[in-house]
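To whoever picks this up:

The parser on our side crashed when reading a file containing two proteins. I've narrowed it down to the boundary between the first structure block and the second sequence. Both blocks are reproduced below exactly, byte for byte. First block:
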Amino acid sequence: MNTAILQDKVLIRPSDLQAVCTDYKVIGTFNPAAARYDDEIVLLVRVVEQPYKQDPRRLISPRTERHDGKLRWIVDSFDSRGAETHDPRTFRLPNGDVRLKYISHLRLVRLGSDDLQVREIITHDNLLPKTSWEEMGLEDPRITKIGDTYYITYVTISRHMGIATALMTTTDFRSFIRHGIIFPTENKDVVLLPEKRNGHFIAYHRPVSNQLVAAPSIETSLSPDGIFWGQHRFLFGPRPGSWDSVRVGSGPPPIRLPQGWLLIYHGVAPVTRESPAGRYCAGAVLLDLENPTKLIARSTQPLICPERPYEQNGFIPNVIFPTGALLNGEDLLLFAGGADEVVSFLRLKIDSVLENLRID
């Protein structure tokens, strides 16, 4: 690994926030989307909350409901006998149902564009669960600016729709318009190209085959309006025996460079005792400028691996999960989740990222 990291630090920890619900605690702040707005950098941060009260004989899973516009927090309780509970994130009931042990929402964070200091953390009602397909949370947003509109893709979870990706838009980060689910179960890590090509939006997404016929890989899709998607094509997948051998998924939206579109992605290595969810590292691919569905180069080695304490130790250890990136001259500002617990920032030299790529 030869990427030059010029700066790295933790921006936000769970202890920096208060829970929305008084009977809950914040256990994670991570996987931030990033965009420039006016003279600031805006983050949308995934915030994870969990009920304080726990009963060793019962398994609890929070969800929400809306009645007359008012948000209600509900805790479902289940008998723990016969359930699979080894995963810190979920449990599986004897009937096969899987439930989360926590619930997530998004919060708006304003950063100084020069000093990257947190100016304000805002709880916005429109970034809390609002629809039936968001009843078990909103997760892992990405922001793409196209024209004057910011397109926000984010993961939703519900009992009836499972894990899906939805879309909302904003022009001012004050009002948000929901457009519903755009990639249904189970599809995550959806990012959009920051410009239309031939009148179409381009998405990079990561479906998962329930039958595991194919390894989780990145595909491209086209849409005339950002809502209805088709013309799905394989882009690239895991490499056997490599650091990204289990699955891959898009990180931040692609960034336009003279050499091509730079797409940072995460790659996962197999589960070990030290890495119960697999070891998450970050790599990059370069896509053709004129045909962004064509891959022309890919990282030979990971750009970044979980080597810092806040990436090696946390809710899910040995995870770095980049979800926001901005250009700053010759530097790449990378915003990521560390160990599914903190928001981190890394500054990289673009040249060192490109030097890591091998032309296919």
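<<boundary where parser fails>>
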Amino acid sequence: MGAGIVGLACAWWLQCRGHQVLLLDPALAGDLPGDRDPGGEWRSGSRAALGLLMADSFHRDRGRAWDLRQRSLELWSRWRHELAQRGHPIPYRPGVLLLAADGAEQERLAALGEHKRALGLPLEPWDRRRLEPLLPTLPQPCLAGLHSGRDGQLDPASALAALAADGRQRGLALQRDAAVALQPERGGWRVELAGGGAERAAWVVLAAGTAASTLLKGVSGLEPGRWTLEPVLGQALELELAAPLPSEWPGTVVWRGVNLVPRPDLKGGRRLWLGATLEPGGTADPDQLSELRDLGGAAPEWLRGAQVVRHWQGLRPRPLGRPAPLLEQPAPGLLLAAGHYRNGVLLAPASAAWVAERIEAGPLGA
């Protein structure tokens, strides 16, 4: 259940491994995931994602979160290659440059780079001389940078389309409907549908954001409130620039938590995504958008003069009082893969691998 990037990744990977899979989501339109809600706004967290794959540059180097990121980075590389060979390429830009806007951030990035290089990871310090060719276009202040060569950015819409199209070619079934209730039945599950009727399955995988926690509340015998997910809204902009960015622009640039993501496949390299807002609830704050658009008053002239082509927003499910994501088995034959918060695109492959391992281990996940 759920045709965002995590749900699609789970469905595609299970189909690849020989399972019979039905993907259920009310937003499905034809063969591909739907784009907009009836009001015309982009609400899917996956559709509002920027597609950043920041694994090596993650501040930790051990534990569950680190392991998931490393596994996903390796799987995305394999998946992109396989999908491209089957006629479904996903645009990808290697490299993420983290910028230091003050002395404390400069020290933090220097320590992070030194530590990760000791682990054999290719994080390269960029001093002012290395940044010199980019300085007219970089936000200021900018004291130094840290470049992560294995991290990168892929196009979320292309990834959704590729997984759905290739999944269909492999036999994946898609159904536009919503689940309203789950009931255990004869060693499997009965899924009651909003449109009437029901589907039966040996396994159910919940990857439907906040709807997943709502469905779990209706399953008798489960601990109330254990899987609560709250919505967090993110906004982003697509800008058209008066001139292309310098050829030296190193993939995605992150400055004070704001992501500047070039779109070289559009308009001769004059398109840019700008995003980073995190807002509680489901109502967009225009002041937050204005702050993003102006980089808090630090936007360079070329960015101030850019034309806004598109504004979109999406809801990200965040676990309440629990670390993200929720990869758990609430009951035999029932899996939860939700609450990825800001890392759905990055962690989709590792989540899918976890789901497949649990299913193939048997109903009790032994």
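After patching the parser it read the second block fine. The mean pLDDT is 91. Residues 64-85 form the longest helix (22 residues).
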